[in-house]
Amino acid sequence: MSLPIVRTVADLRAAVAAWRHQGLRVALVPTMGALHEGHLTLVRHGRSMADRVVASVFVNPTQFGPSEDFSRYPRDEAGDAAKLAGAGCDLLFAPTVEAMYPAGFSTSIEVGPVTRRWEGAARPGHFSGVATVVTKLLLQCLPDVACFGEKDYQQLQTIRRLVADLDIPVAIEGVPIVRDADGLALSSRNAYLTPAQRQTALALNRTLHRVVERLRRDPAVVDAAAAEGMAALLAAGFEAVDYLAVVDAASLEPVERIDGPARVLCVARLGGVRLLDNFPV
Predict the structure, then answer these.
(1) CA–CA distance, 26 with 46 (Å, rounded to integer)
(2) Pair type for strands 145-149 and 240-248
(3) Number of other CB atoms surrounding residue 42 within 10 Å
């Protein structure tokens, strides 16, 4: 059975309204397509918390910088729809750019301190694009719950902040990172790696795991552990490390020692691909 697809906000709202009339709970899973097991895990998580699941597929141009990969970002709507149907999704919302950003569109959302470091510093304007499109999707669908992966941990914290600040009536669910059998965090951008680069990429998971283990043994060696992790990644063959930071799990501000929930965030470059990963401490 093929998955129903809607492309307008009016059709999305009509479908959700019909479910609401039946007293059903609704979950939303926003994606940019090129779906893998990580996305499907979000769909299954949404299904565990609601009666109906909507997934959106929209490659959002406003969160890509001028030198980034918007034009070559992988797109496969038919394949994505088949995967979503198999994971228990009930409806695919696949709007056009013109539907999401009609002529005259001139509003953007800036979330504040949680976006200013790390990805926010490396990709100016990125989180404004994310915050704006996610706010639109939440208001278009008005789900009971929306599911986001922890792999993009700063994005998750940004969305939690904007939902709280704007009083949007939705529960935001963070879902743990899904990894391949060899430990590499699943990402649509992994497809850009050559076989040799993919083997090198495995050092990212191993290195962050060692950083976390060292911090658990000695919570006061934050700077040394981070420096050693960066050196290990470069020695393993990564071209650059944009950042490897130990931060407060909520505010994402750097910490000098581990006194409460923390997160190790890292982005390293390999073959021109930015690979993101993070671990809780």
Answers:
(1) 8
(2) unpaired
(3) 27
Q: Where are the beta strands (DSSP E) in the chain?
A: 5-6, 26-31, 52-57, 91-93, 145-149, 171-175, 240-248, 262-270, 273-280
Common-topology check for domains 5-175 and 188-280: no
Q: Fill in the DSSP letter of residue 261.
A: -
Q: What are the residue ranges spanned by the domains of the chain?
A: 5-175, 188-280
Confidence of residue 133 (pLDDT cuts 50, 70, 90): very high
Confidence of residue 92 (pLDDT cuts 50, 70, 90): very high
Instruction: Determine the Cα–Cα distance for residues 81 and 86; give it in Å rounded to an integer.
Output: 9
Contact 204, 275 (CB under 8 A): yes
Q: pTM of this prediction?
A: 0.96
The continuous run of DSSP H or E covering 42 comes out as helix 37-49
3 state SS of 68: coil
Q: What CATH number is given for 5-175 in this structure? A: 3.40.50.620
Q: Where are the alpha helices (DSSP H) in 50-110?
A: 77-87, 97-100
Catalytic, 39? Answer yes
Compute and round to an integer the Cα radius of gyration of the chain.
19
Q: Tell the CATH superfamily of the 188-280 domain.
A: Pantoate-beta-alanine ligase, C-terminal domain (3.30.1300.10)
Residue range 131-156: mean pLDDT, rounded: 98
CA 258 and chain centroid, separation: 25
Query: Active-site residue among 36, 39, 126, 209?
Result: 39
- List, in sequence order, every residue forming a beta bridge with 47; answer none if it has no partner: none
Amino acid at 271: G
pLDDT at residue number 95: 98
